[in-house]
Amino acid sequence: MRNNIFRTLVFSSAIAIGTLSSCEKTNDEGPNFLTGPDLGTRQFITLTGAFPDAEGEAGNGGTRALAISLADAENPNFEANVFANGYTLRSQRTARVQGSPNGNFLYNIQYTGDDGGIFNKYHVQGGKNFIDTREEVNTEPILGNAPRWVIAANGIGVGVYASAKVQGTAEGAGADFVDVKSTAKILALDLDNPTILRQTEFTIPFTEAQTKAGYQIGRIDVPILNAAKNKVFIGCNLTKVDITKKSTVNNNGVQTWATTNPGRELGTATLVVDYPSLANPKLIYSGVSKTNNHSYRTMTQWIGSNGDIYQATATGGSQILKISASTNTYDDSYNFDLKTALGSSDNIAIRAWRLIKDDVGLVLYTITGTDGGYLALVDLKAKTASKLTTEQESNIGFSGRSANTSTGVTAMVGTFGQFQNIGVYGDNFYVPLTPNGLDGNLYIINYKTKAITKGAKLKNQSGSFYLGAY
Description:
Number of strands: 32
Strand order of the largest sheet: 3-31-30-29-28
Strand content: 35-45%
Structural class: mainly beta
Radius of gyration: 22 Å
Helix content: 10-25%
Number of helices: 8
Organism: Sphingobacterium litopenaei
Protein name: DUF4374 domain-containing protein
């Protein structure tokens, strides 16, 4: 796909699609337009699910999508089976899917493989019917073949990549630490008319003292465009090399360096760049948290009612922090802790969450040392939380487990560790809940009444789980 005729083919197909859509975009009664912005009314809730690869690793083989009507989504007697009846999205491994506001388009950048880094756009037609608009964009030269990306604002996608390179006194094992350099790559993507708007690469702006102390950022994720549309805020996996220890070599012969978290002084870090230029990078740090905020496959930053950004310390922490709309820095006077709000003494990890209206959100969380996956409604203004009860919530298929060779316990991938998207329509959240390999249901939660309703049955299969609703 990355040969010299790629642009010609895409340009020709885009002209054909544009000709068709120009006749239909004026009809916004339903999803009849083929591309462009999402101008149609919502007709469907699209469900996605991940299935195992050839070696049997759960959820690692790819992703299928199935669009069901709003009435079917709410019907507990309706059975949806994304694996038997769904459409296979193009991606060698689990697709990282995004959806348009009214649910009429899905977007994806393929993950790994020969076509890793290729952006695809799909028009939702209902059932297993999705039209690939063929407006492909190759992000691989910038982001690599396993990109991190999300919808940063309506119609705008942002993809990111970071790496860190340690300088030692020598190659191989036994070297002393000298310095470390972290690099970021960022790309802005027009989702309505799929094109790359801008791209950049730069050294992440730590101070000299910070890099000499071993601070590095090796992964960035969940970029969000602020309400003013002039800054992008990006979550960071901030770590610190243990500069007191010498280098070692891993099984692949690569020089490696130990990290130390107890010795970390810097708080939760966010990388900020101007928009649309993607210039003037800076780092801001929280004074009330040291837990990283780079998430995993799910968006964990949302804009509140007054333009502030609410940012979860996901997927390992229990806090939701605030970045001020007026200063574009952390507001350390605010600190929501789900653990405190639930009155829990257990360690809680936010796995996914979504803001809806009035600064009310829905959180999917797990509890350290406890099987299962749990839901809570949170009011970020009042700093309160209400746990919601669902069937099978204590099933280990939600939380998963690590392997233990000494006891013969095998690893299990947990649904909540892979979860991607909580659907929102009107006053309702839509959450597909299936433990790994087991059937479940689509749950509908009204944020005003706190009522939770069991909707459509979700048929599952071995080594699989539903990932999101759009």
